[in-house]
Design brief:
This protein is of the alpha/beta class. It has helices at 31-47, 68-72, 76-94, 111-117, 145-153, 155-164, 170-176, 188-200, 204-217, 221-233, 239-249, and strands at 7-11, 16-21, 52-57, 100-104, 107-109, 121-125, 129-131, 167-169, 181-183. The protein has a domain at 7-186: 2-enoyl-CoA Hydratase, Chain A, domain 1, CATH 3.90.226.10. The protein contains eleven helices and nine strands. The strands form two sheets. It has a six-stranded mixed beta sheet, sandwiched between helices. Strands 5-7-8 form a three-stranded mixed beta sheet. The protein starts with 6 loop residues before the first strand and ends in a 10-residue tail after the last helix.
């Protein structure tokens, strides 16, 4: 029996596994939900009954990103350890031998979008919005967001996304290539299942072999994770980061010092 606090997992007879994010109110990514996700990914890999995974939310938002209240209490060592765990998890998700779909409702921001970027396909409802707002918080995307986004949509657009820290509506994200399919708000699950069934109609072993080859394209991500960790060390104890989190929690505009 799986002991999960913030995840509800369902395996249907057709081989679709639903990983339902359920951390009220916005599926903030804290230590507990990261541990839950790691547990269920290991279970799926070991059980070998699941043919396709759908990540979805039982809350209003897919995930608003890191739990900044928890993050504020962390020292630099704890923050680094947390990011190591998140990167390990996201690499495991990306390297799953079966297809993965992110079914996005509401917001997918920061770590929430980084989670979606680990998936093979991203489907979003028309009122959703996505983005990597970390630079507005004095930090950088620390869980693969920069290099996965660059691999997906190219350097110029990725730089614009990260440097401006904007939140993009679904249609803009679709035009840029971050979102693959758009659904009406009340049809998200239906559209997601349609895409899933199109995949499941094909030979499981051939799909696994295809994904193995696709994953080789991003095999240098392990080296990039090390560079990402080095880059994050430049901002982890910065005055700007402390000011940004303080401003965010008090709903004020930060005053940047550049140090």
């Amino acid at each position: 029996m799986l002991n999960l606090k913030y995840i509800k997992y369902e395996l249907h007879e057709d081989g679709i596994g639903f990983i339902n994010l359920n951390n009220k109110p916005v599926n903030a990514l804290n230590n507990d939900i990261i541990n839950d996700l790691s547990t269920i990914i290991d279970h799926i890999e070991n059980e070998k009954k699941c043919r396709l995974v759908i990540f979805r939310s039982l809350q209003k938002h897919f995930s608003a990103g890191a739990d900044l209240k928890e993050r504020k209490k962390m020292n630099s060592t704890q923050t680094t350890d947390f990011l190591d765990n998140v990167n390990s998890l996201f690499n495991k998700i990306e390297n799953l031998t079966i297809p993965t779909i992110a079914s996005i409702n509401g917001a997918a921001l920061g770590g929430g979008l980084e989670l979606a970027l680990c998936c093979d396909i991203r489907i979003a409802s028309e009122s959703s919005y996505v983005g990597l707002p970390e630079t507005s918080l004095g930090i950088i995307p620390g869980a693969g967001g920069i290099y996965r986004l660059a691999s997906l949509i190219g350097l110029p657009k990725s730089k614009y996304w990260v440097f401006t820290a904007q939140k993009f509506k679904t249609d803009s994200a679709y035009q840029d290539g971050v979102i693959d399919f758009i659904s009406k708000d009340n049809e998200l699950l239906g559209v997601t299942l349609e895409v899933a069934q199109e995949i499941l109609e094909n030979a499981p072993l051939a799909i696994k072999a295809s994904k193995l080859l696709f994953n080789q394209v991003s095999k240098n991500f392990n080296d990039l994770t090390k560079l990402q960790k080095k880059a994050y060390s430049l901002v982890i104890n910065s005055e700007d980061k402390k000011e940004a989190i303080k401003a965010f929690l008090s709903k004020q505009k930060p005053s940047w010092k550049g140090k």
